[in-house]
Amino acid sequence: MMNSKSDQEMIKKIKDLIQIPVKEAIKEVSKTFGNKEFLIQSIDVSTCYPSEFALKITEGNILAVSDLKYVVGSKITILSSIKEVKAILSTLLETESNTKFDEYELSIFSELANRFTGTLLTRFGKSVKTSLECTPFDTLVVTKDRVGFTPFESRILLLTVKVQLEETTFDIRFNIEQNVFTTLIENASGSKEEDIKLKEVRLPKFVDNNDKLHDNSNMNNLDLILNVPLKVSIVIGQAKKKVKEIMSITSGYVIELDKQIGAPVDIIVNDQHLAKGEVVVIDENFAIRITEIVNVTNLITKD
Q1: How large is the average pLDDT for residues 127-144?
Q2: Separation CA 226–CA 204 (nearest Å)
Q3: How do residues 56-70 score in pLDDT, each as one tens digit?
Q4: Are both 35 and 166 inside the same structural domain?
Q5: Domain ranges, residue 238
Q6: Which of 29, 42, 178, 220 lies 20 to 30 Å from 243, alpha-carbon distance?
C-alpha cells in the first residue's frame, strides 16, 4: 500500500490527467441535450474506504452502477440525490419538476451517466495508452434494503465535478476503485505492475466441425463453455432521436429506421456483430435465415 506522500502525489497526477477528459465528457453531455451550456466550476479528486463510501448510500439517493470492461470485478458508480437529479432534468428537458420519480427519469439519468462516463474513459484511456470502456449503467433509487450498499472492495477514488447549468448548480460524483487508475498510470509510465493486470478476457476458439480436437486441454476448455447461455439479438434497424422527439412519441407515431426494405438484418451475439440474415416465417413465428457470417473471431478467440 502506498504511503501518505506517494498517495498524495498519485492523486495530484490523476487530477492533472483527468482535467481534459472531464471537459470532453461535459461537452458530450451538452451535445446530447441540444448544446446546453454547462459551466465547470471545479474538479476535485479524493479517496475513501468502502466503509466510508457506504455511509453515503442513504435512502432516496440515485445510484448508477456499471462494470469497467477488461478489469474483472471493477465497478464504476455515479451517486446523486433525487432532488438534485430532478433539478438537472427539469432544466435539461425544460419541464416542470414533480414529486414522483419515474422510470423515464431514471432512463434519462442513465443516459447522462453513459455519455459522461463513456467519453471520460475513452479520453482518459488515450492518455494512459489503454482502451477503456464500461457497460451501460444500471440505475436505481436507493431503498431501505439497499442503504449502506457498496460495490467496492478496495479504496475508492472520488471524482467530484461541480457544474452550473443555467441557474442550477449540481455535482457529478464519479467513483471508481483507486488501484484501477493508479495501475493504468504506472503502466503507462513504465512502472512495475502491482494491484491488477489489464488484459482482455478471451475464451478458447471454436474449431470447424470438420476439424478434430486432439488436444485434451482444448476439449476440457470447450466443455466448460459450451453450455454458457449467450444473448442473441436481431436488429432490423436503428434511429437517432433528440430527447424532445422521444418525449413527443405517442400511439401511432412512426419511427423511420436507417435500413431499406429487403436489407439484411444484423444478428448480435453477446454484444458482438456475428452475422447478417433475412427474416422468414416458420409456422406462425418469425425466424432468421443466416446469409453471411460477419465475425466469429472476436466472439470467441484463443490467446
Answers
A1: 89
A2: 11
A3: 999 989 999 999 986
A4: yes
A5: 216-293
A6: 42
C-alpha cell at 176: 471508481
286 in a structural domain: yes
DSSP conformation letters of 193-224: P-S-------PPPP--TTS----HHHHHHHHH
Q: If you average pLDDT over residues 244-256, what whole number do you get?
A: 83
Cα–Cα nearest to 231, from 200, 280, 278, 274: 274
> What is the rounded distance in angstroms from the CA atom of residue 62 to the CA atom of residue 250?
28
Please write the tens of the pLDDT for every residue from 73-105.
Answer: 789 999 998 888 888 888 777 776 665 667 878
**Sheet with 156-165, edge to edge strand ranges:** 38-48, 156-165, 168-177, 75-81, 61-67, 138-141
Mean pLDDT (whole number) for 252-262: 82
Q: How long, in residues, is the chain?
A: 303
**3-class secondary-structure state, position 106:** helix
**Do both 128 and 179 map to the same domain?**
yes
Please check whether residue 98 lies inside any domain of the structure: yes
Q: How many domains does the chain have?
A: 2
Tell me what percent of the residues of the chain surpass a pLDDT of 90.
22
Q: Write b or e for each residue in 27-49: b if 16 or more Cβ atoms lie within 10 A of its Cβ, otherwise e.
A: ebbbebbeeeebeeeebebebbe
Residue 223 banded pLDDT, cuts 50, 70, 90: low
